[in-house]
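Researcher: I'd like a structural prediction for the single chain below. Treat it as a standalone chain; there are no partners to consider.
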Amino acid sequence: MKDFLAALGLVFAIEGIFLAAFPGSAKRSMAVVLKMADGPLRLAGIISAVLGVLIVWLVRG
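Model: Treating it as a single chain, here is the predicted structure.
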C-alpha cells in the first residue's frame, strides 16, 4: 500500500509541475481531449495502464 501511495503522490507531483509550468498547453490539451471520442481515450487509458504495470513489474522485479 505504501508503494501505491508513493506512486499516486508522484503522479500528482508530476501533473502539478506540468500544470504550473505550462498552463496554456494544459488547457489546449484538455480541450482536445474533450473533443475526442470515447474509444481512442479508452484505448489510450488501457495502453497507459498496461505500460505502467509493466514498468512497475520490471522495476520491482
